């Protein structure tokens, strides 16, 4: 088994670590002044579990997903939903499950890359993480090099910590919110599937309206929702740290955000009921099902087919992660 390498950026306003597995970014510490800091990125409690494979071995923070999503369709899809086969067996794509290599590092920048298999439409991914020398902020870019023209579901996968002091999802202005077509964790998930609603503060569940904007939730659960027309930045408020954390991206490329609330609902290994995090995942995809499910044409998210990547024309996707004191 390959050893996981980790590289660090340190600057006046914080510290960030990037690992070779999945190119994952975490932990991140932002220094917000007066001796205070906030560390918003999740690091899974099993850290580096050799019994796990791919991205699950050392799940943490943020990473790019190309192609994004699951490789098997869930059971019990509603009428009108079709199934199809994924192009490969890597959940969230080859790059999320394999080792990246260091290309270049300076005082305020780190660049890594991963080569895709020879039969893939994607040739390689390049990922650059740059620290703002004047602020608690990171600019991250992903450049995709394609061998041939292809449309693929794509997402960034920022996963944020839910500390004991909690986190409030201030969120983004949006058009609507859609629940997953089926319960993400059968027997555990509570949000009514295949519904539309307007606010995270009144989410329809099997037990009545739920305020999902303040985490952790009172009961163990795992939930997925797609916030359509999510206008960044998406704001997360950490009250114990008196800090706001901001995630900003190009909404013309990634029009929605997939919200993953992991609230201790998965009891099997390695989760063991101890994983508390919230994923805010800018995407162009039908949930995480774009590779394996064909939604009915009438579904409001049916046109979320992915991004276009052209042969010999690199495409760069950028986002910014930053913090400020309250």
UniProtKB/TrEMBL annotation:
Q: Which SUPFAM superfamilies match?
A: Galactose mutarotase-like (SSF74650)
What the entry lists under InterPro entries is as follows: Gal_mutarotase_sf_dom, GH-type_carb-bd
Q: What is this protein called?
A: Aldose 1-epimerase
């Amino acid at each position: 088994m390959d050893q996981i390498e980790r590289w660090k950026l340190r600057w006046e306003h914080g510290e960030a670590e990037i690992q070779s597995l999945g190119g994952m970014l975490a932990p991140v510490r932002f220094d917000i002044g007066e001796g205070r800091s906030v560390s918003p990125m999740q690091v899974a409690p099993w850290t580096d579990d050799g019994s796990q494979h791919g991205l699950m071995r050392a799940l943490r923070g943020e990473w790019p997903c190309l192609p994004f999503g699951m490789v098997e369709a869930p059971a019990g899809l509603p009428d009108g939903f079709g199934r199809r086969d994924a192009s490969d067996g890597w959940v969230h794509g080859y790059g999320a499950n394999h080792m990246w290599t260091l290309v270049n590092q300076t005082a305020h920048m780190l660049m890594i890359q991963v080569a895709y298999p020879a039969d893939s439409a994607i040739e390689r991914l390049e990922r650059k993480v740059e620290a703002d020398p004047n602020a608690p902020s990171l600019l991250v870019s992903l450049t995709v090099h394609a061998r041939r023209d292809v449309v693929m579901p794509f997402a960034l996968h920022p996963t944020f910590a839910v500390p004991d002091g909690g986190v409030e999802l201030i969120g983004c202005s949006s058009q609507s919110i859609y629940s997953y077509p089926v319960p993400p964790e059968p027997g555990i998930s509570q949000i009514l599937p295949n519904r539309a609603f307007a606010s995270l503060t009144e989410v329809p569940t099997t037990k009545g309206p739920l305020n999902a904007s303040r985490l952790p939730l009172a009961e163990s659960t795992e939930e997925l929702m797609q916030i359509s027309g999510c206008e960044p930045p998406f704001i997360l408020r950490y009250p114990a740290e008196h800090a706001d954390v901001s995630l900003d991206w190009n909404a013309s490329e990634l029009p929605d955000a997939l919200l993953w609330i992991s609230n201790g609902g998965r009891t099997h290994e390695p989760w063991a009921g101890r994983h508390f995090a919230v994923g805010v995942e800018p995407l162009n995809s039908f949930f995480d099902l774009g590779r394996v499910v064909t939604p009915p044409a009438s579904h409001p998210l049916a046109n979320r087919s992915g991004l276009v990547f052209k042969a010999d024309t690199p495409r760069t996707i950028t986002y910014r992660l930053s913090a400020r004191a309250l």
